[in-house]
Specification:
- The structure holds three protein chains of three kinds.
- Chain A has one domain: Helix Hairpins (Orthogonal Bundle).
- Helices cover 76% and strands 0% of the residues of chain A.
- Chain A has three helices and no strands.
- In chain B, 75% of the residues lie in helices and 0% in strands.
- The radius of gyration of chain B is 20 Å and the shape is globular.
- The N and C termini of chain B lie far apart (58 Å).
- Among the domains of chain C are: 275 residues, no CATH class; 117 residues, Tumour Suppressor Smad4.
- In chain C, a hairpin with a 2-residue loop joins strand 5 and strand 6.
- Classes of the chains: A mainly alpha, B mainly alpha, C alpha+beta.
- Chains A and B meet through helix 1, helix 2 and helix 3 of A and helix 1, helix 2, helix 3, helix 4 and helix 5 of B.
Amino acid sequence: MGIGAYLALASVLFGIGAVGFLTRRNMLIQLMSIELMLNSANVLLLAFNRAYPGNHDGQVFAFFVIAVAAAEAAVGLAIVIAYYRVRKTIETDRATLLRY
Amino acid sequence: MTGAGATLFVVTAIFAIIGALITVAARRPLRAAMGLLVHIVSLAGMFLTLNAHLLAALQLLVYAGAIVVLFVFVIMLIGPEAETGPIEGRLVSRSTAGALTLAVFLVVATSVGGFDAAWIAVDADFGTVEGLGLAIYRNALVPFELISITLLVAIIGAIAIARSPTE
Amino acid sequence: MHEDASQQLALLLIILFPLAGAVVNGLFGRRLPRSLVGFIGVGSVTVSFILSITAFAELFALRGEGVHEAVLTYQFYEWFSLKLPSGAEVAINVRFLMDSLSGVMTLIVTGVGGLIHLYSVGYMSDDDGYPRFFSYLNLFMASMLILVLGSSLPVMFVGWEGVGLCSYLLIGYWYENRDYASAGRKAFVANRVGDFGVLIGMFILVGVVGSFEFADINAAAAQGYFRKDFMMWPFGVVPSIATVACLFLFLGCTGKSAQIPLYVWLPDAMAGPTPVSALIHAATMVTAGVYLCCRLSPLFITSDVAMSVIAVTGTLTALLAATIAVTQREMKKILAYSTVSQLGFMFAAVGVGYFAAGFFHVFTHAFFKACLFLGAGSVMHAVHAHGDADIFKLGGLKKQLPTTRWTFLVSCLAIAGVPLTSGFFSKDEILLGATAQIFRSDDSLMVAVGWFTLIGLTLAAVMTAFYMFRLYFLTFTGEYRSAGESSDGHGYDAHPHESPASMKIPLIFLGLGAIFAGYLGMPHITPFVGTHLPSWWGHWMEASVAGHALPESMNTINIASGLALAAMAIGIGSAWVLYRNKSKDVLAEKVPARLYALVFDKWRVDELYDTVIIGPIKQVATLVGRIDMTFVDALLTRLPSFNAREVGRFLSRMQNGVVHTYGMVLVIGVVSVMAMFWTPRAHVEGALEGETLQLVAAPGFGYEYRWDGDSDGEFESGWSTKRIYAPTYGPEDVRKIFLYVRSPRTGASDHYSLTEQWTRLDLARLDAAWRRTQGSLPIVARLEDGKVQLRMNGAQVFGRTDTPDVIELPTGRGTGIENVLMVPRATVEATVEVRNAFGNVSTASREMTLPDGYLPEQHALLLDATKEGSR
């Protein structure tokens, strides 16, 4: 068994995350779906780094992905709170102020 | 890959998929957060089979310890309003989204799934705290410092955005 | 050319002073005190006049030293240059030139212009637009001086357009009045028609000569450059380029100098203030056409046809305008038609080849006509006439306006041609020129033109004397007919008063000029018996103006002078009898009323133009406008705006602000990009690389290739990333053989796909000569055992006579059959398979016809047998 299984798993996880992002209206769950997609990317990075272990580039990259994900989650959740405070809801369908 | 490693992979993979499905399908956000927690913990276990010991630890610390907790805080802050239907929207748009995502999934799966690489031996310090730490400080010092500034900016930004306008 | 001559800065300054005056008065005039505005206006022209005198004195001194073709020049800068179709580069310089012709003209313009500026200070003193008036007037002076001093056609044209503009501005000076404003427009439009002619003439000249400089054009004309035949659509060949060019230039002159058919604007131009009428529409601008003809006199004199047209047009104009002047009632209208008539005299002189005489009339006319206009203005000023003065409401003004009366009388005597006044000498010379043409020419056409001109001008001279003295008697003799009018601003002032000094001084100076200016052109003769010698004027002008020499025969002179004197006497005498101390229009009672009304209505020429030209143009314009609005606007504005609006409406619907929609669009994009890369793109080209044929497949990320060079289904190479492949071909790889045929004579070519069956070659399609040489027997070709066989049916291989009936053609080599080249070419096919990272495979194959002379080593077997046949 090689890293192919990891790659297939990463694809499945990314697909689940994408479906979640596209079909849910709950802002919190959409944010969580984004975390799922970021995690699947991390799996790919680590698997490839394991297959070509000459350096640590994949792992370093995954490290940065985790850091950025943390920052993104912080800002994203702050936006959710601010939005909730204004609209008393967290449904993204209602957030249509930026239309034509 | 040893037999133990393969077993660990299969087990963690099953749990990761189950956690992910719970996350996207749960009606209640708190349950979704729990699904996300299961998913993240299983991935942390899977990282061990990939010789990524430090990242497994970071995954637990940052994702499970910080991000999921933050989600839970926000859910509690918002309260019952945080709960909306499991999968909303019209049937047409739902099925279109599902079909398109399936198409992407198939393309990616067939292209990377066909790829395979030999499972070669690695150095003793591959993925350890020392090995990865040296790699970060030697090769990626500037991005590392930049990411610290990014985090600082994110913290300040989050405070500025979430602050009540009356304060 | 005179580039090396010392620069005469004075020439530039002559122009710049009035220009500066125009700028200062135009920009700041409203904030300056009136006295300063007037001082700037008059002063700038006075300085210009003094500079002109110094420059002229220098020119005079040069002539005195015996330099015959003395000129002063000033090269300002190179304006632009243009490339002729012949490839020659023509530099257009802003260059000013003063020779004997432009020197005199400059003196007239600045001298008479200065006096009229001075007059305007008094005349316009009550007007609100005082600074504007002086600004326009100064701008006119600058433009006129550019026109006069420009050394080439484009520079002259700048002045030509500039005076046109100023004329328009000054005619419509009282623009609140609709009629006055439309009179300005009329002048502008009539001039545009003429300017078109000048431009065309200019382009013809530069096309022939390759230079815009007057000196070069005149030199070329003297060398006979313009006597060539000339092809002009739709007239075919016209006798000479000179005729065409001169007629176009003359069209411009008819516009600017108010000749038939474009004279109609000048009488209406009297809507402007009287000093404007005196300066622009009598003394200077309207003579620009005569000036242009004199400037290019060596060119004009080469075309008899153009000269005859000019002479006849001038004579007809002189007659027509004189008849109209006889019946008019308003002072300025009479003077306006008189101006048109006198301009006709000048053009008649030009037309019979006496340019110097024509220009002499310009010179004298400037004095007496300016004096007459200013006198009319003085009368109108005295009686508070607004706009124009009806002579039947005036009368007896000699008591109240003594200065005006005497200067007016002197000018009337001059224009009527009373002996020893300036008009006598100039008009006499014009009649002399017409008489001389009758005696000089052998050509019957020219003689006829001479007779016509002589008789027409004599009649016009009679009428000139008559209407001028009709004007004089009705205005200044008898009783003042408006004495009972109230002075409430509607009628004329019951108590006329003499004008201020600033108006009297110009009158006196111009009156003196009207008498004495003519002595410059006094011929050195003793009346009736003595020998004739050219006058001082003729001597002076011959340096820059061409023309026929004046006749020395005393008979000719006696005829001309006699006619002039008789005309003058008849005209003045009949006016004396009919109008002295009278108050009614006696003439109107003596001629049929309808004829009189027709003439009084100016022969209804304006109405004729309205019906014949303006009406149809308006209708066409309306029609075109409607087409523009319905079709062009629909296609170019409404359709694009409809498209933009609807597309925008559709696209804006996508911007619904819902994050799911944006996510979906993103996914669609990802899927589309992936679909594009799903299957690889297969494409192959063959290229000759030296002696080897190379196949090149299209590149792509992650592509692998597999080659089958001869398309036999077996791949010679395995999967690899090499996208260039050099196959080798043998005779068994040849798929088809094409026979290419080409006629070197006609360049036409064709090709046939050969089979085992005989194919007929339709060679007559390539070259009609084939049918004639070969009759009905066709050549047929087929493929026999991989070789091309030809059944000749009597045709011969090129250069041989014993060709057998069936021959074989070598593949890849050309063979001449009669007058057609035939090349059999072999065709091979190559296939490539391409695989991408998804594992998908595409196939491409290509048939390639091997080019002429291309003989790959393995191909030699195929060609060996045929090689012998061709060598």
